[in-house]
Design a protein that fits this description.
single chain; Cytochrome p450; 399 residues; globular
Length: 399
C-alpha cells in the first residue's frame, strides 16, 4: 500500500490550517492523501483547483456509486444518502428549488431587529466573567433558530450532545453515532408533527408549505433539512463566533477597531469567515469522467476534496493570507460557503447573524477582553469541527 499523508491534517496553533497546505501547494498542489476510511483521494490546495472542483458537474457527491472512495468508514451526516449535500441533479436541483425561498436576502434582513434584541437580552443576563463559547456563542444561535423557525424552545442540552456525537471522528463507536443521529431525527420529526396542525408563520411553517407547482417536500426531506438547519446553525455559527472573538481579542486591536468603526463589520465578517472556518471541507467528491484541473487530472472514479482551507489561504488570491486584514479587497472571494450548486443554502443567514452579533457586542461591550491567555485556551480534538473548548472573557476588560 502506497504511503500518503493522512487527512484531515492536525491544525496548527489556535486552529489555523497546518503548514502542510502551504508545503503541498508548493510541491504537489493536487496530490493524494489517505482518508480516515483507508481510501485515498486527491486534495486541492490552490484556490483555482478548489473552485474548479466545486463548480464542475462532473464531480459527483453521490458516494453510493460502486467503488466510490469514502471519507469515513461508517456513518457521517454529510455523506448520508437523501441529504441535500449528498445529492446530484436532478434530485438536488428539485430539493434546492423547493428550499430556495427560505433564506432570501429580504427574508433574512427582516430578522435583523429581532436578532439584535436577542443578543442584547443575552448580554444583559450574563455575569461579569463568562465563557464566550458555552454561555454565548452556542446558546444564542439556538435561540435565533428557535425564534425564526417558530419553535418555542428546544432541548439545548440534548441537541448539543447529539451534534457532538454526529460530528465526532474518533471518540465514539459507529453504533453510538448512529444512535445519536436516530434520536436527533426522531426529535425533529416530533417537532414538525407538533407544528403541522398549527404551524404559525415561522421558518418551519415556510418549509412545511414549500412547494413548486404540485411538488412539495416529503416528510423525510422536511425532517432531514430541519435537522441540518439546527445542526449547522448551532454548531457551525457558534464555532465561527468563538474562533472569531479569540482572533479579535488577541491581539485586541482588531476588536477595538470594530468598536471605533462599526461600519467595517460587514467586511470584517467576510475576512473572519475566510480565516476562521472551523475545519476543512470534509465533503468528498467522485469524478464521473476524467477531469483536467489547473494542477492536474482526476481520473474517472477517483475522489477529490476541494479544500476550503487550502483555497482561503492561497497567497495568489489573498496576499499575506494568515494576516487579518479587515479591509481586504479580495476577501469576499473566500470559499467558506463553497461555490457552485452546493453553495451553502444558509449563507445569507450566517452572514447576517455574524454581522448583527458582532455589531451588538462592540456596541454593548466595548471593553470585552479575554480572561485567560489565548495560548492556554484548549481546542477540540477528534472532531470534524475545530474550535476552542471554552473562551473565558470579562465584560469590563482585564482584572
Amino acid at each position: 500500500m502506497a504511503e500518503f499523508e493522512h487527512y484531515p491534517f492536525m491544525p496548527g496553533p489556535r486552529g489555523i490550517p497546518a503548514g502542510t497546505y502551504a508545503e503541498r501547494r508548493e510541491k504537489e498542489p493536487l496530490g493524494k492523501v489517505r482518508l480516515p476510511s483507508g481510501d485515498t483521494a486527491y486534495l486541492t490546495t490552490t484556490y483555482q483547483d478548489a473552485a474548479g472542483v466545486l463548480s464542475d458537474p462532473r464531480f459527483s457527491r453521490d458516494l453510493t456509486r460502486p467503488g466510490s472512495p469514502q471519507m469515513f468508514a461508517g456513518y457521517t451526516i454529510g455523506d448520508t444518502p437523501g441529504v441535500l449535500t449528498s445529492m446530484d441533479p436532478p434530485e438536488h436541483t428539485r430539493l434546492r428549488r423547493l428550499l430556495s425561498g427560505v433564506f432570501t436576502p429580504r427574508q433574512v434582513n427582516a430578522w435583523r431587529p429581532r436578532l439584535r434584541a436577542l443578543t442584547g437580552e443575552l448580554i444583559d443576563a450574563l455575569p461579569e466573567e463568562f465563557d464566550f463559547l458555552n454561555d454565548f456563542a452556542f446558546p444564542l444561535p439556538v435561540q435565533i433558530i428557535c425564534d425564526i423557525t417558530g419553535v418555542p424552545e428546544i432541548d439545548n442540552v440534548r441537541v448539543r450532545a447529539w451534534s457532538d456525537a454526529m460530528l465526532s471522528t474518533s471518540s465514539l463507536t459507529e453504533e453510538e453515532k448512529l444512535t445519536a443521529a436516530m434520536e436527533f431525527y426522531g426529535y425533529i420529526a416530533e417537532l414538525i408533527a407538533a407544528h403541522r396542525d398549527n404551524p404559525g408563520d415561522g421558518l418551519l411553517a415556510t418549509m412545511i408549505h414549500a412547494r413548486d407547482g404540485e411538488d412539495r417536500l416529503t416528510e423525510e426531506e422536511l425532517v432531514r433539512n430541519t435537522l441540518g438547519l439546527f445542526l449547522a446553525g448551532h454548531e457551525t455559527t457558534g464555532s465561527v463566533l468563538a474562533r472569531s472573538i479569540l482572533r479579535l481579542l488577541d491581539p485586541r486591536d482588531g476588536y477595538e477597531r470594530l468598536a471605533g468603526r462599526p461600519e467595517l463589520i460587514p467586511s470584517a465578517v467576510e475576512e473572519l469567515l475566510r480565516l476562521e472556518q472551523p475545519g476543512d471541507s470534509p465533503l468528498l467528491r467522485v469524478a464521473t469522467e476524467d477531469v483536467e484541473l489547473p494542477s492536474g487530472v482526476v481520473r474517472k472514479g477517483e475522489g477529490v476534496i476541494a479544500s476550503f482551507a487550502g483555497a482561503n489561504f492561497d497567497p495568489s488570491v489573498f496576499p499575506d493570507p494568515e494576516v487579518m486584514d479587515l479591509r481586504r479587497e479580495t476577501t469576499q472571494q473566500h470559499l467558506a460557503f463553497g461555490r457552485g450548486p452546493h453553495y451553502c443554502l444558509g449563507a445569507n443567514l450566517a452572514r447576517m447573524e455574524l454581522q448583527e452579533i458582532l455589531g451588538v457586542l462592540v456596541e454593548r461591550l466595548p471593553d470585552l477582553a479575554l480572561a485567560m491567555p489565548a495560548a492556554d485556551v484548549p481546542w477540540t480534538e477528534g472532531n470534524i469541527i475545530v474550535r476552542p473548548v471554552r473562551v473565558p472573557v470579562r465584560k469590563s476588560g482585564a482584572a
